[in-house]
Write a structure and sequence with these properties.
160 residues, mainly alpha, binds zinc ion, DUF983, transmembrane helix, membrane, transmembrane
Length: 160
């Protein structure tokens, strides 16, 4: 068990299965829950709910969890800025309009992080889950549904 001893867990309920990384990234790219694929994770573009309304997964597993998302967002924004500046410079050289290019650069630096924000959070959640799979009690609504489904199957199997 180890690092989760401080967390409040329903240890009698087995952990829900963690989806594969490709499934999770696919869900993240459409701003859905990596664990269950459920939607409605954002109240507004930049305001993420605390828990998935479909499976109950708590997105901020540990304090500072989303520093990784901020870092990822920053790296992608700098990458975009670099591409814009290099392409702008190459296509207009030797008469590069410095002021226009600077304005475009500032616009990219402001708009890209806002557009990418929700995706960076869901994608970081996928990366974190790939590194540290679901533990018991982390997606309580999903675990409960799986347990009910398993019980139903047992009932059918045991029926006379
Ligand atoms: Zn979910």
């Amino acid at each position: 068990m180890g690092r989760d001893s401080v967390r409040d867990r329903e240890s009698d309920v087995p952990a829900a299965p963690t989806p594969g990384i490709l499934v999770m990234v696919g869900r993240a790219c459409t701003r859905r829950c990596c664990v269950c694929g459920g939607g409605k994770l954002f109240r507004r573009w930049t305001q993420m709910v605390e828990r998935c309304p479909s499976c109950g997964y708590l997105f901020e597993r540990a304090e500072g969890q989303f520093i990784g998302a901020v870092g990822m967002n920053t790296i992608i924004t700098f990458g975009l800025l670099l591409v814009v500046l290099v392409v702008g410079f190459i296509t207009t050289s030797p008469n590069t309009p410095a002021a226009e290019l600077a304005i475009i650069g500032v616009a990219v630096s402001v708009i890209a992080p806002i557009l990418l924000y929700p995706f960076s959070k869901t994608t970081w959640t996928a990366i974190d889950l790939a590194m540290t799979p679901l533990e018991p009690g982390e997606a309580p609504l999903l675990s409960a549904r799986l347990a009910t489904a398993a019980a139903d199957r047992d009932d059918v199997a045991n029926a006379p």
